[in-house]
Design brief:
The chain is built from 2 helices and 10 strands, in the order E-E-E-H-E-E-E-E-E-H-E-E. By secondary structure, the chain is mainly beta. The longest helix is centred in the N-terminal third of the chain and has 7 residues.
Length: 138
């Protein structure tokens, strides 16, 4: 199956914490970073997810925010450090490619944000992704 989701990073499930309807699934990405995905308990069962399962973490580029450094006091669980490799700007939006250990992420952000944060190739950034915006595939 081909997907339009550009951000696909492989990893291994390190834990599954079930709730009544949702579960949190912790994944160690191939680059060593840990991310948390909040998915339905039904999806956990259908995918057969358990500790040690190989998965791909999928994130739409519109769900990746960028910061110029780590952010404290924030509910967003996933903060992945990286380096910008490309910035392509259009009339209102920009696609920013970020090299992270084990892969690459693309963030679709406003052109104004690129200018305000002075983002350019070689800049260090932190990709911020809410746990509810990470999907998992097997």
């Amino acid at each position: 199956m081909s997907l339009s989701i550009r951000n696909q990073i492989a990893g291994i499930v390190t834990s599954v914490t079930p709730g009544e309807v949702m579960a949190t699934v912790k994944v160690r990405l191939d680059g060593g970073q840990d991310v948390t995905a909040a998915i339905t308990l039904e999806a956990v069962k259908e995918l057969g997810l358990a500790e040690g399962s190989a998965v791909k973490a999928l994130v739409k580029s519109t769900e990746v925010s960028l910061a110029t450094g780590p952010v404290a006091g924030l509910s967003i669980r996933n903060q992945i450090p990286g380096t910008i490799t490309d910035v392509a700007t259009g009339g209102a939006m920009a696609a920013v490619k970020v090299s992270v250990q084990g892969g690459e992420l693309t963030a679709a952000i406003t052109k104004d944000a690129v200018a305000d944060l002075k983002l350019a190739s070689g800049s260090s950034v932190v990709a911020l992704i809410k746990s509810t915006e990470i999907s998992l595939a097997v």
